[in-house]
């Protein structure tokens, strides 16, 4: 297991630069396309992530990071029910600009593989549809472990491979044919929405990601599938 490999990228640095530039180009239309292309299911998936981590979010002594926060949808949901200290981070500046329009929490620009945070400083890290885009998955997991307190939790919401054959066929057609066309037309970046289904296809299955999280050092890992397995939510404890 390595990391995302956009076409044409020959190493981790090039992959990271390509992904950063791609998200920068679509930041202004990102929310619209997320809701449109997921038929608003993305809102339900993010809500489930917040519900599954609510005990920590509602703890006034907890420190929570929404990593790869993008335009801030998860962080905005956290703000509605939090008593904890929460903040967001992303390595794409235009995404943070969009996030700043909807959240009051502090935001900072940083690479998820090298966070400017102290060891054992966080109680919860949420990552919604961002982990798949890391240039090195193992390094990413090790960095999460480094900044989590003992007993801390990471919640990774990510696309996965549908298990139902009929749904998988429809999902495959939509993601490879419809999504690039509509996404490219509205965002002006067809490459970005051609990358999405390709990155999902290459991403580990829910079982493989759970195994990798355990191998990286998490002591307990759980996951649940949503929407016929198109999305999976992994929770892991340090």
Could you describe the 3D structure shown?
It is a single chain. With 238 residues, this protein is α/β, with parallel strands linked by helices. The chain has one domain: Rossmann fold. It contains ten helices and seven strands. A seven-stranded mixed sheet has the order 3-2-1-4-5-7-6, sandwiched between helices. α7 links the parallel β4 and β5 (148-159). α3 (41-52) crosses α5. The radius of gyration is 17 Å and the shape is globular. The mean pLDDT is 95.
Question: What order do the helices and strands come in, and which of them pair?
Answer:
Elements: H1 12-26, H2 30-37, H3 41-52, H4 54-57, E1 63-67, H5 73-81, E2 85-90, H6 93-99, E3 107-109, E4 122-128, H7 137-147, E5 148-159, H8 165-187, H9 190-202, H10 206-216, E6 220-226, E7 231-237
Parallel strand pairs: 1-2, 1-4, 2-3, 4-5
Antiparallel strand pairs: 5-7, 6-7
Kindly report the average pLDDT value. Answer: 95
Spans of at least 5 consecutive residues whose pLDDT stays below 50 are: none
Number of domains: 1
CATH superfamily: Vaccinia Virus protein VP39
The value of Rg in angstroms is 17 Å
Largest beta-sheet characterization: 7 strands, mixed
Strand order in space, largest sheet: 3-2-1-4-5-7-6
Estimate the helix proportion, in percent: 40-55%
SS element count, helices: 10
Tell me the series of helices and strands, N- to C-terminal: HHHHEHEHEEHEHHHEE
Please give the CATH class: Alpha Beta
**General shape:** globular
């Amino acid at each position: 297991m390595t990391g995302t490999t956009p076409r044409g990228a020959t190493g981790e640095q090039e992959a990271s630069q390509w992904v950063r530039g791609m998200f920068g180009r679509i930041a202004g239309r990102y929310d619209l396309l997320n809701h449109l292309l997921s038929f608003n299911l993305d809102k339900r998936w993010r809500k489930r992530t917040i519900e599954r981590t609510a005990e920590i979010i509602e703890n006034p002594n907890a420190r929570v990071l929404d990593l790869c926060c993008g335009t801030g949808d998860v962080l905005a949901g956290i703000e509605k029910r939090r008593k904890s200290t929460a903040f967001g981070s992303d390595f794409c500046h235009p995404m943070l600009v969009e996030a700043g329009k909807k959240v009051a929490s502090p935001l900072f620009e940083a690479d998820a593989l090298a966070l400017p945070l102290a060891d054992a400083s966080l109680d919860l890290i949420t990552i919604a549809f961002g982990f798949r885009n890391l240039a090195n998955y193992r390094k990413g997991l090790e960095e999460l472990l480094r900044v989590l307190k003992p007993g801390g939790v990471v919640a990774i919401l990510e696309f996965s491979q549908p298990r139902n054959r009929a749904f998988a066929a429809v999902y495959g057609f939509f993601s490879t044919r419809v999504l690039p066309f509509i996404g490219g037309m509205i965002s002006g970046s067809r490459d970005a929405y051609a990358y999405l289904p390709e990155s999902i296809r290459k991403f580990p299955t829910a079982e493989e990601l759970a195994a990798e999280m355990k191998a990286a050092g998490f002591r307990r890992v759980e996951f649940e599938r949503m929407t016929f397995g198109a999305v999976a939510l992994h929770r892991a404890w340090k």
